[in-house]
Design goal:
about 150 residues, alpha+beta, seven-stranded mixed β-sheet, 5 helices
């Protein structure tokens, strides 16, 4: 597995992976607007979106990070292919997003959680990585510069 900056040739595979991940969570597979225009939502703002690819060059994970002038960052779309969870892919994606935020001078990273009943795995995952609840649907973490 390797993590790379998203490139347009991975668009269809990324979309398929996200829809498949949502379906595995028993959600109606829909796409958020940012996934349909990564340039507008991430790259044109100086932010980033990464994908994890396997040895066959297929998308198996993703994460996006937006940074703001108040030294905060927000994570988006951390997905791992449903049958590859608990293999370190999500942790590796989270680590690269946190490092990007540090490099941009951010001191806090926030994220929005989905519904408690559906996204219970996310809540455990982020807690394991030092994130704490801001409110019922949001978590955050202070990050230290190295």
């Amino acid at each position: 597995m390797k993590i790379i900056k998203y490139m347009p040739e991975y668009r269809d595979d990324l979309i398929f992976m996200v829809l498949e991940a949502k379906n595995a969570l028993h959600r109606i597979p829909t796409l958020n607007d940012d996934l349909l225009n990564l340039n507008e939502y991430y790259f044109n703002k100086g932010d980033m979106f990464w994908i994890a690819v396997d040895e066959r060059n297929r998308v198996i994970g993703s994460v996006g990070c937006n940074t703001f002038s108040d030294h905060s960052a927000v994570l988006h779309r951390l997905y791992v292919k449903y049958n590859l969870k608990r293999q370190g892919i999500g942790s590796a994606l989270l680590e690269i997003a946190e490092e990007f935020a540090r490099e941009k001078g951010c001191t806090i990273i926030n994220l929005h959680l989905g519904e408690k009943e559906t996204y219970f795995e996310s809540r455990r995952f982020y807690s394991k990585h030092g994130y704490t609840y801001i409110d019922e649907n949001h978590m955050g973490k202070k990050i230290q510069h190295r």
